[in-house]
Write a structure and sequence with these properties.
alpha/beta; globular
Length: about 270
């Protein structure tokens, strides 16, 4: 039988958090699912924690980074809908049932996404992220405003057609993937519900590279910025051959779209 959902969790050294992640999936009701934990070689308590959850399949082998780990899970997935849930994140109770019910009324949707909460390292609530119906140019020029931890892909029309994460992207792979799906004409559908929790702490891949005094830290940050620039050039508006002029145009678009985003968040309200 084809499960309703496949949850893919890439993992490396997050044993202190992964139990919460697994429990949040195991507690989902009203759906069928498979949960694939793709571990790159953790030496902490990860394997022992996963073994306590019979719903999860644990695969441990080296990989070239988070994007490759997610792709391994996506290739093996059998669910009608796919998503990746980071090892330090959690699904809200009833999240999958809400997505399934919404999808039943949206048979043409390829991507369904909702809102999420930021939580502290100890799991306490920090703030809620309000989202709104899809804006393609906002995605490419302002940044990925759709949280991967609250985003679901119809397997048949995304991964099933060969759309996988670009493994050259290590920081904003979600933004590139969503932009590429949008450019391919995939339909995005907004679900006005809070579906997940994103845990913020010092080891987050997207948060850890802050500019510091030494060149190595600046290089890490530049690589992250370069990925965002590549998305803008590949999927957004490019007005000039000169990249310095494009940087000026990007800044104008950024602040214009930032204002639009603020208006949309006010219009749709908090979830």
């Amino acid at each position: 039988m084809t499960p309703d959902f496949t949850i893919v969790t890439p993992s490396l050294g997050y044993g202190r958090f992964i139990g919460d992640c697994l429990a949040s999936v195991a507690g989902q009701e009203g759906v069928t699912l498979e949960h694939r934990v793709i571990d790159a070689g953790s030496t902490d308590e990860t394997a022992e924690v996963v073994a306590r959850f019979p719903h999860a399949t644990f695969v441990q082998e080296p990989d070239g980074g988070m994007s490759e780990g997610i792709n391994k899970g996506f290739r093996a997935a059998r669910g009608t809908w796919l998503m990746w849930l980071n090892a330090d994140d959690r699904l809200k109770p009833g999240a999958l049932a809400a997505v399934k019910a919404h999808a039943a009324t949206r048979p043409a949707s390829d991507v369904i996404y909702g809102g999420w909460d930021f939580v502290r390292e100890d799991g306490g609530f920090e703030k809620r992220m309000t989202v709104f119906p899809f804006r393609r140019r906002m995605l490419s020029h302002l940044g990925c405003y759709i949280g991967s931890t609250a985003c679901f892909f119809r397997r048949a029309t995304t991964v099933g057609e060969g759309h996988l994460l670009d493994e050259d992207f290590r920081y904003v792979m979600d933004g590139e993937y969503l932009s590429r799906l949008a450019a391919a004409g995939k339909r995005f559908d907004y679900l006005p519900a809070v579906l997940a929790e994103f845990r913020r702490h010092g080891a987050n891949l997207s948060l850890r590279n802050r500019p510091a005094g030494d060149a190595a830290e600046w290089l890490k940050r530049e690589k992250q910025w370069a990925e965002s620039r590549a998305i803008r050039r590949a999927y957004g508006w490019t007005f000039f051959k000169n990249d310095h002029l494009n940087a000026v145009a990007d800044a104008v678009l950024y602040y214009g779209l930032l204002g639009q985003k603020a208006w949309l968040k006010r219009w749709y309200g908090r979830l």
